[in-house]
Structure formats: C-alpha cells, structure tokens
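Justification of resources, computational component.

The compute hours requested in this renewal are based largely on the per-chain cost of generating structure records like the one below. Each record pairs the submitted sequence with a full structure-token output. That output is archived, and it is also reused by downstream analysis tasks.
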Amino acid sequence: MTRRLTWAFLICGAVIGSAAPAGAAGYTVVGWNNLGMHCTDADFSVLSLLPPYNTIHAQVIDPAGLRVKDPVAAGITVTYEAILDSTGSINTTSQGKTNFWQYVLPLFGVAPSVDVGLTGLRMPGVGNVPQPMTWDPTAGWFIAEGIPIVPYDDAHQKNPYPMMRLVARTTGGAMLAFTLSLDDFVISFFTSGPSSVTLPLYIYGSLRRGISPDIHALSTIVFLVTVALVLGLQVFTRSPKEE
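The structure output for this chain reads:
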C-alpha cells in the first residue's frame, strides 16, 4: 500500500505545532510556510508590490524519528492540496478572485495561465489536484515557492488563513502495491479498505453485473501494456554482442 501522510497547515500561520504518523509505516511530515500571504495587492491595474506568492516547506521524518536526508533515493515525494478548515472554508483556486493574470504580462514580462504563479507553480484548481513539491538537497527540505494563492476562499469569502494538506508518498510502495494487487486478487479482496478499489477488484465487481465493453477494453489495455513491458525489458537488457 502506498505510504502517505496528510497534514494541514496554515498558509498565513507559523510553524506547524505537531505532525501525525503516516499510517502503519510511521512516517511523519512537518510542513510550514515562510512569509505567509505577503499581504498580496488587491488591485494590479496600476502597479504591483506584492503578487500572489506563497512558499511552503516540508521535511519527512522516518519511523526512527530521523529526518530523511535523501528522499529521492528512498522514492519519497511530497505534494500539496487544499483542504477544508474547521469552518468549511477551502481555497483550491485563485480564478475570479484577483485581476493579477489580467495585468501580469506588462507588470512582470511573463504570461502564466490562470492559477499558475510567477515561478510556474500552480494552485490545486477546482479539481483539487495534488501539486508536487521540489526537493532541495542543499537546504534539506521539500519546497514549493511561489504558489499564487489569495486570501479569498472558493466562496469568495475573506480568509487570510487558508489551509493546505501535505501528502508524502513512496513511489516504490505504490509500485509494490500495484504489482501485488494484480498478482494476488485474494489478498487485495480481503485487505483493501472501503475507499480503496484496485483494478482487479473493479473488474471483479463489474463482472458480477455482466460483461461490458469496458471489461474488454481494460483486458486489452492490460495485455498490451504487459507485452510492451516485456518487449521493452528485452530491448534494454540485450547485450551489445547480441546486437
């Protein structure tokens, strides 16, 4: 199963007070932001002193309580996404909340699309899609610099303390879980949670309602992907002498 940890933090707050364990794996993520909302400009039609620009940092702690110093080698990634606060407020997008993108080209000489900041980072958007953070080996933390968030939630209510959730995942764990779920249907059937549906479980549930064209399409895709992987492995492992 993919190891993951979620933790909410205040965009305009200080350092997180504590963090929670990442499921059975026992990993912990500590996240914080450096300069908060920056008191972003309310109007960009004349000039700009403070564009939408927020920066967050994160570090991953292993089950032994030690900071993970090389998450790239460990296959660990961290993403950020919006989350509801205690009042039900959520801030997933900056679209329609500011005229920044209308005047960004003459002000800064670049033309990012809506919800994309000056550094290329983006808001999660209306679909609340997790956005990747970048590992900085020099500083020893994950960083997302220049998130274009504004102090208005999706209901256009003023909220200078929007919350985000940081999620740490292991790519190796995801691949192992995917492989096991395909290889052993029985284990997946009895150990998957109510919100976890693997591909074999989805196919099994669909077959109980009758064979549909979707099942044929999925079977074809799985077969073709398997063949492609086998052929690709043969190509990459072939020695120069065999060529």
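The helical segments are 71-74, 100-108, 171-183, 185-191, 199-207, 213-237. The chain has two domains: 4-175, 176-237.
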